[in-house]
Amino acid sequence: MLTAFVLINADIHSIPETAQAVADIAGVTEVYSCAGDVDLIAKVRVRDHDGIAEVVTNRINRLPGITGSTTHIAFRSYASEETEAGFSVGE
Predict the structure, then answer these.
(1) What angle do CA 18, 46, 7 make, to 5 degrees?
(2) CATH of 2-76, one of 3.30.70.920, 3.40.30.10, 3.30.2010.30, 3.40.50.10810
(3) Which of 9, 44, 59, 60 is most deeply buried (CB count within 10 A of its CB)?
């Protein structure tokens, strides 16, 4: 499985509706509204790069209210327990 994070700019007058529309897309596992340079961040989990293209290019970017996006493909994930286990030496 591939994970991608899509940073989404949206029309400020329809952020909640746009966020829900993004969340309703197959392959999108989470959507966050946030402060800062982007309005929404979507986590996408799909089988391959073609899946990312389908979800982002053909679905997310075509939604009403989306004004732009940037996609970041993740290589590896880390969690605090995994990081601690990686540095544990026979304890």
Answers:
(1) 40
(2) 3.30.70.920
(3) 44
Q: Are strands 40-46 and 28-33 parallel, antiparallel or unpaired?
A: antiparallel
Among 18-32, 50-64, 74-88, the least confident range? 74-88
Q: What is the pTM of this model?
A: 0.85
Q: Where are the alpha helices (H) located in 1-91, listed in sequence order?
A: 15-23, 49-52, 80-87
- The dihedral through the CA atoms of 25, 48, 31, 12 has a sign that is negative
What are the b/e assignments for 28-61, b being 16+ CB within 10 Å? beebeeeeeebbbbbebbbeeeebbebbbeebbe
